[in-house]
Design goal:
It is built from 3 helices and no strands. It is mainly α. The longest helix has 27 residues. The radius of gyration is 22 Å and the shape is elongated.
């Protein structure tokens, strides 16, 4: 026997707004933590320098190296 529960639209809207706010908080917290990590920043700087110097690999080579596909 199934039952239906009616939920007010205002409650659904509040839940949706809270979910979006939590997702934004999660994103901002992740950014903060990454930007506070010296090892991560150093790795990103090295990667950027390699990219600018043309030291890149093709996607096919990367997939082979990682055994993808």
């Amino acid at each position: 026997m199934s039952r239906t529960i009616e939920v007010p639209v205002t409650l659904i809207k509040k839940l949706s707004k809270a979910t979006r706010a939590f997702q934004e908080l999660e994103d901002e917290l992740e950014d903060f933590l990454l930007l506070s990590d010296p090892e991560f920043l150093a790795k990103m700087r090295r990667s950027r320098a390699n990219h600018l110097a043309g030291k890149t690999r093709s996607m096919d080579d990367l997939k082979k190296e990682l055994c993808i596909e």
